[in-house]
Design a protein that fits this description.
It comes from Spinacia oleracea (Spinach). The structure is a single chain. This protein has about 425 residues and is an alpha/beta fold. The chain has 16 helices and eight strands. The strands form two sheets. The protein has a six-stranded mixed sheet with strand order 3-8-7-4-5-6, sandwiched between helices. Helix 2 packs antiparallel against helix 3. The radius of gyration is 26 Å and the shape is globular. About 5% of the residues have low confidence. Bound molecules: zinc ion.
């Protein structure tokens, strides 16, 4: 049975083939302590596979067996993951936004605009709209040239910025934008610069930001009408759509000045999670996390903003199946550290967006990490406030040093 990372683990050459075909996984587990029989595993499997086995979590309690699809993090089958699997192209989507993008997205989320626009802008940032270049990337067989101007490949940058219809629309709109200014900037950076500019100059109720997003939306809608319904797709159609959209948003926002628009308070992927009893942000004791995952894993934490504990660190080393697994262990270590010192309010900084995503999930089904995430959540409840926040890598420098030392030298710093 291929039970280790989708493969059958390799048996050491000094083992006899006959009996090895009858080994069962349960033979390698201590039932009482829910842990691997490390010596037996090392004795029977080659070093690399033994390592992989020992890094796997053993469930603490007996549970019903269930089907697990190994190619989505949720463990549930989806057509698109099956498709990717068949084409042997499966890779976890690692496109993450940088912190400037997150600031811009969060700002969009707080605007009093149509919710569909928010998701639209969010999808642009994740390059998640079905333009031809993205379809081809997903394995669809079609030509990628823009069928309006024929002058470039149809990616989002083209549709929303460089296509002749987009260029003319931006130039003649009330915003008077020349989309070829800063031509080398990727679309995300270009969008972000206008979002931040309009917001800083006009504030929350400025019309320019709204017009900017409405024009993006109109370009996209008119492109779709052209591609799917064969409509002309000229700038005239873009402006008609724009007018129509601005009316819609006018109706939508009238009488809504007081309360912000419903729906999730943070854009998907905005990285913060409260696991304490009070779901509030705490600015007192801060603790940074980091991990090293090259060969032997190491993880560490460092207190960064508290006079009493300033500069204190803790770290450990051991096995982890992935960097997020190691980061989760760092998080658990930090919570244990704080709990032992009777600290009730804590903010934990991590540069791992994946860790935050796992902590956000109601039920984690990724079997490689479910135990550690469960332990973190259980421990989090003991704190009055406990927030895990995504921060840039450079902010967790000190913890990173600790993790490196623990990984290389095999330290444990309690
Ligand atoms: Zn074009």
């Amino acid at each position: 049975m291929p039970w280790v990372g989708g493969k059958i683990p390799e048996v050491r050459s000094n083992q006899t083939i006959g009996p090895s075909s009858k080994w069962r996984v349960s033979e390698f587990i201590y039932r009482d302590s829910s842990s691997w029989k490390a010596n037996l595993v090392r004795e029977r499997f080659v070093w690399k596979d033994a390592w992989s086995i020992l890094a796997m979590e053993v469930p603490k309690e007996e549970g019903e067996d269930y089907r697990y699809w190994n190619f989505t993090k949720s463990g549930r089958f989806s057509v698109s993951s099956g498709y990717d699997y068949l084409f042997n192209k499966y890779a976890v989507d690692s496109r993450t936004l940088d912190d400037h993008d997150l600031v811009a997205l969060r700002l969009i989320w707080k605007l009093n605009i149509l919710p569909k626009w928010k998701y639209f802008v969010w999808k642009i940032f994740y390059d998640g709209l079905a333009v031809k270049v993205n379809l081809v990337r997903r394995g669809l067989n079609c030509d990628t040239m823009c069928n309006y101007c024929g002058l470039g490949e149809e990616d989002l940058q083209h549709v929303l910025r460089f296509c002749s219809v987009a260029e003319l629309s931006w130039n003649t709109s009330s915003l008077r934008i020349n989309p070829f200014e800063n031509e080398s900037w990727p679309l995300r950076k270009w969008l972000r610069s206008y979002i931040l500019l309009y917001h800083s100059e006009d504030g929350w109720n400025g019309g320019r930001l709204q017009n900017f997003i409405a024009l993006l939306w109109s370009l996209w809608k008119v492109r779709n009408a052209r591609v799917f319904r064969g409509e002309g797709g000229h700038p005239g159609a873009v402006f008609a759509m724009l007018e129509n959209q601005l009316q819609e948003v006018g109706t939508f926002t009238s009488g809504r000045e007081e309360s912000p628009i419903g729906g999730p308070r943070e854009p998907p992927g905005y990285h913060m999670v409260h696991i304490g009893r009070e779901k509030a942000f705490h600015n007192g004791l801060e603790c940074d996390l980091a991990c090293q995952k090259s060969g032997k894993a190491g993880w560490g934490m460092a207190i960064s903003s508290n006079l009493l504990f300033e500069g204190e660190t803790a770290g450990d080393h051991g096995r982890a199946v992935s960097s997020v697994h190691a980061e989760a262990k760092a998080c658990l270590l930090a919570l244990t550290w704080a709990s032992n010192r009777q600290i009730s309010q804590l903010r934990v900084n991590t540069d791992s967006a994946a860790l935050i995503s796992y902590l956000h999930m109601g039920k984690v089904s990724d079997i490689s990490i479910v135990g550690t995430i469960g332990d973190i959540k259980a421990m989090g409840c003991r704190f009055r406030q406990c927030t895990i926040l995504k921060v840039p890598r450079q902010e967790v420098d000190k913890a990173d040093n600790v993790a490196r030392r623990c990984s290389i030298l095999g330290y444990s710093i309690p």
